[in-house]
Design goal:
Elements lengths: L1 H92 L1
C-alpha cells in the first residue's frame, strides 16, 4: 500500500512535470508570437510614416509644378502683349 502510494506520487510528479513543460512551451510560443506581432506593427508604422512623407513630398512637387506652369503661361501672355504693343508702337511711328 505504501509502495503504491509512492508510485502514484511519482506518476503525479511526472504528469505535473510534463504539464509544466507544456505550459512553458505554450508561454514561449505565445511570447514569440506576441513579439512577432509587435515587430510587424512597428514595420507597418514605419511604412505608414514613409508613405505619409512621400505623399507630402508629392503634393509639394505637384504644387511647385502648378506654380511653374502658371508662371510660364503668364510669361507667354506678357510676351504676346509685348508683341502687340510693339506692333502698335511700330504702326504709330510709321
Amino acid at each position: 500500500m505504501f509502495e503504491d502510494q509512492v508510485q502514484e506520487n511519482r506518476n503525479l510528479e511526472n504528469d505535473t512535470a510534463k504539464h509544466d513543460r507544456l505550459v512553458a512551451k505554450y508561454r514561449s510560443e505565445f511570447g514569440t508570437g506576441r513579439q512577432a506581432t509587435v515587430e510587424f506593427q512597428d514595420e507597418v508604422d514605419v511604412l505608414k510614416n514613409t508613405m505619409s512623407k512621400a505623399e507630402a513630398d508629392l503634393a509639394a512637387k505637384k504644387n511647385h509644378v502648378v506654380c511653374i506652369c502658371i508662371q510660364y503661361q503668364m510669361s507667354q501672355e506678357i510676351a504676346l502683349l509685348l508683341s502687340y504693343y510693339l506692333i502698335l508702337v511700330t504702326d504709330l511711328c510709321l
